[in-house]
Design brief:
mainly alpha, globular
């Protein structure tokens, strides 16, 4: 986590030149707290695999109950219509609901592989239903990439994996019908906001101009202030990587790239069984999501906590891993 501590330090330093020093200071402090919590959990408490599984089971339970409550409210017509007409449950927008569902799906899947029970298998359903009803193309692609990654890593067990996934999908189809699947598939290739990415390409062009104008960054957490500028009519840059570069500068983006490069080996070499399989798939799905969604360090929402807690758990597993046994020891702190 050394690289993430460097990023938190850079975020704090950015208050010196920030367009909103107070916001940058508070957001940098929140980032430091997130990194410290995950680092301490990964390097100390999660040395005990059973403690890690128990903690992540609690996280998965809370998230799935939140998703399930939104689904129940939706099916009982207790939710007001959303601005987009898409499902978002009790979350802020449909894309956020789908992002969280994508990560919760892989976390729940890993916990099921760790200890296969019908109860843990049932926890896949709220995530699958939310993904289908929210109609987020990014989340669907991210889950598909995670699934492909899982099958490649666990080729000998791929048959059983596919059967279980197909069973879960079939149960979701019986519960909610095929309309959500048809709706989300119809969004691929459709034009909205002037392009096939709901206007994101225009936002990304503006973001790149901002980075060129100030490669040092405008201050950590200052996206809302920047978007209040009369030049812009959007509230998000719709890319975690571009947002990091805009707020923390090109150096911050390079630090994030370094983090993911350092995660490659744990993702590949962590034992492809038990909870490690789900954590590896979650990490690569989050990497995909962050291309078109701004949430990697948005500490005012649950997504980054799910993301980085999973990364911390993956590193804890990898650290003391023996040739035929998942990790139980300390890990390399370079990430």
């Amino acid at each position: 986590f050394f690289t993430l501590y460097l990023l938190a330090g850079l975020a704090a330093l950015s208050t010196v030149w920030s367009v909103d020093p107070a916001t940058s200071a508070s957001q940098a402090a929140a980032l430091l707290a997130l990194v410290a919590i995950v680092d301490r959990s990964s390097s100390r408490r999660w040395i005990d695999r059973s403690a890690m599984v128990a903690d992540l089971s609690l996280v998965a339970t809370v998230v799935n109950i939140a998703l399930l409550s939104g689904l129940v409210a939706y099916l009982s017509d207790a939710l007001d219509p959303t601005y987009s007409g898409r499902f978002q449950g009790y979350l802020n927008n449909p894309n956020l609901a789908a992002q969280i569902a994508a990560l919760a799906l892989w976390l729940s899947w890993g916990l099921f592989l760790e200890r296969p029970t019908l109860w843990r298998l049932a926890w896949l359903l709220p995530s699958l239903a939310t993904l289908a009803l929210a109609e987020s193309r990014t989340a669907i692609v991210a889950v598909a990439v995670g699934a492909a990654w899982s099958v490649l890593r666990a080729a000998p067990r791929a048959g059983g994996t596919l059967v279980l996934v197909a069973t879960s999908l079939g149960a979701s189809a019986l519960a909610f019908g095929l309309r959500p699947l048809t709706a989300v598939l119809s969004r691929f290739g459709s034009t909205a906001g002037g392009d096939e990415f709901s206007g994101r390409t225009f936002i990304w062009v503006d973001a790149i101009h901002l980075i060129r104008e100030n490669p040092l960054g405008y201050g950590w957490g200052t996206t809302p202030t920047i978007n209040d500028d009369a030049r812009f009519d959007f509230t998000s840059f719709h890319s975690s990587y571009l947002q990091v570069a805009i707020e923390g500068g090109v150096i911050a983006l390079l630090l994030v790239a370094a983090v993911y490069l350092l995660l490659i080996q744990p993702m590949i070499r962590t034992h492809p069984a038990g909870i490690g399989a789900g954590l590896s798939a979650l990490t690569i799905s989050a990497f995909v999501i962050d291309f078109t969604e701004s949430g990697i360090f948005g500490v005012g929402q649950p997504y980054p906590y799910l993301h980085w807690l999973a990364v911390g758990a993956l590193l804890a597993l990898y650290a003391g891993q023996k040739p035929d046994q998942p990790a139980t020891g300390r890990r390399d702190r370079s990430t």
